[in-house]
Amino acid sequence: GYPNVGKSSLINSLKRSRVCGVGATPGVTRCLQTVQLDRHIQLLDCPGVVLDSGDPPAAAPLRGALAPQRLRDPLSPAVAILRRCTPQQVGGP
Question: Is residue 65 part of a domain?
Answer without folding.
Answer: yes
